[in-house]
Design goal:
Distance between the termini: 68 Å
Mean pLDDT: 88
Number of strands: 22
CATH superfamily of the largest domain: HUPs
Number of helices: 13
Oligomer: single chain
Shape: elongated
Radius of gyration: 30 Å
CATH class of the largest domain: Alpha Beta
Largest sheet: 6 strands, mixed
Helix content: 25-40%
Strand content: 15-25%
Low-confidence stretches: none
CATH topology of the largest domain: Rossmann fold
CATH architecture of the largest domain: 3-Layer(aba) Sandwich
């Protein structure tokens, strides 16, 4: 316990006026940490906000919430709770974790807290490291979790990492600290529980202080990771800008630097959810970059897409909704891709941003729409047609832009013009006969 107090007072340096949001399940670990903070509060004027998530999967959940609420009231702590009403079809633990941390972060903002503290202990660190070694991860992922994470305006802190589960329970019993027991922690259906029930007892038989070895392992990997990150900084800005990897420059790098750049990008995207990413995902991205395909895509967990478009690879954190549109073009049309089409009186240009047509050769009115499967356009200088898909490929239109690219058609759905890219046989040159001019800008 001395290490915990030294960590909080000398490393974290808690001081008067600090506000702490404590994630508290009412179990032995979080009740232990709550009471450590209560002891510190006797000498340092800190504010404790107890944050409880009712996961709503066990009959005892309601009574556990009430127990903690009453305990906080008795000890003059702020109590905040939320109840998860519904889960989706995704991994239960990943969903619950994401909901918890979103709730915690909301409370950090609400109370302008300096710290978010959780009761992860030494056994949790062992389990996390072993799970990631077996599953595969990045160098950072293999280290488990950090004791301190600096999120800018607040820090995530895990003070109990120096203690084992058995020590915490003994401390609670010795000091009369009440807690509840989550019986689901003893069920072998969950992966972490299998490590906890089967692997940890063996390791502790070999060395009762084995958690200290894993702390050292964690610190060593983090030291190496920091060193490599310093080297990466010299390379990553040259190949990764504006959320895009320059494929040509990337291929010139050493294999270790290549892997680390991908891992660094994933760490930034997934942050505390990094445990759902493993070395297979890194390899998938590297294979995507090295492939001969000009346009391709892979999907990662949590709706993250990695998209290759010619000599660029970029990461999308959102599912981009494809918007189908079909707009009548009379004088002006504002397009979903941020551009516009406008009927004008005159223009000197003959490039692909300007289209001239003779109204008697097409069926008015004109429309602008998104592409359809099997679209083809009759070209001006050759006999026959070309698929719109092939025109996009020839013009190197990025994969994610094709579904919203404007296509101008007449009332019989004949393709007249693909603005900015290609003209059809129905378009006219400046010295030919025409009575409509349309400009794309």
């Amino acid at each position: 316990m001395n290490k915990v107090m030294e960590f909080l007072l000398n490393t974290i340096k808690l001081k008067d006026g600090d506000t702490i949001v404590l994630g508290n399940s009412a179990g032995p670990d979080s009740m232990c940490l709550l009471n450590i903070l209560l002891d510190i509060r006797k000498n340092i004027n800190i504010k404790i906000v107890c944050a409880h998530v009712n996961h709503n999967v066990r009959r005892e959940s309601e009574s556990e919430q009430e127990f903690l609420m009453n305990y906080c009231k008795e000890h003059d702590c702020v109590f905040e709770a939320m109840k998860i009403e519904k889960y989706g079809d995704d991994n239960f633990h990943n969903q619950a974790r994401k909901i918890r941390y979103n709730f915690f972060e909301d409370l950090v903002k609400k109370y302008d807290a300096n710290y978010l503290m959780t009761a992860h202990h030494g056994d949790d660190l062992i389990e996390t490291i072993l799970m990631r070694i077996v599953r595969g991860s990045t160098l950072k992922g293999y280290s488990g979790f950090d004791k301190i994470i600096d999120n800018g305006n607040y820090k995530v802190v895990r003070p109990l990492v120096f203690l084992t589960k058995d020590y915490i329970k003994e401390y609670d019993e010795k000091n009369g600290i009440p807690y509840v027991v989550d019986t689901s922690n003893f069920k072998g259906k969950y992966t972490r529980n299998r490590y906890r029930l089967s692997v940890l007892p063996f390791l502790k038989e070999e060395d009762k202080n084995v958690h200290e070895k894993f702390i050292k392992f964690n610190e060593t990997l983090n030291e190496y990771d920091r060193f490599i990150n310093n080297e990466i900084k010299k390379s990553i800005d040259k190949v990764y800008k504006n959320n895009q990897i320059d494929v040509i420059k990337y291929k010139e790098l050493d294999i270790l630097i290549k892997k680390k750049i991908i891992a660094t990008i994933l760490e930034d995207i997934y942050k505390e959810d990094l445990m759902i990413i493993n070395d297979k995902h890194v390899k998938l991205i590297m294979d995507l970059i090295e492939s001969r395909k000009s346009n391709s895509r892979i999907c990662l967990p949590h709706n993250v897409d990695v998209i290759k478009s010619y000599d660029k690879v970029y990461f999308s954190k959102e599912i981009k909704e494809v918007i189908d549109y079909n707009i009548e073009l009379i004088k002006y049309a504002s397009l979903p891709n941020g551009h516009k089409l406008e009927v004008i009186d005159s223009c000197d240009s003959n490039n692909n941003d300007v289209c001239r047509i003779l109204s008697s050769e097409v069926k008015l009115p004109l429309y602008v729409r998104t592409r359809k499967f099997g679209d083809k356009m009759y070209l001006k200088k050759i006999e026959g047609y070309k698929k719109v898909k092939d025109i996009f490929i020839d013009c190197k239109v990025p994969l994610d832009e094709r579904d919203k690219w404007p296509i101008v058609v007449d009332s019989e759905d004949k393709i007249i013009w693909i603005p900015g890219l290609k003209k059809s046989k129905y378009t006219k040159l400046k010295n030919e006969n025409y009575d409509i001019i349309i400009k794309y800008s």
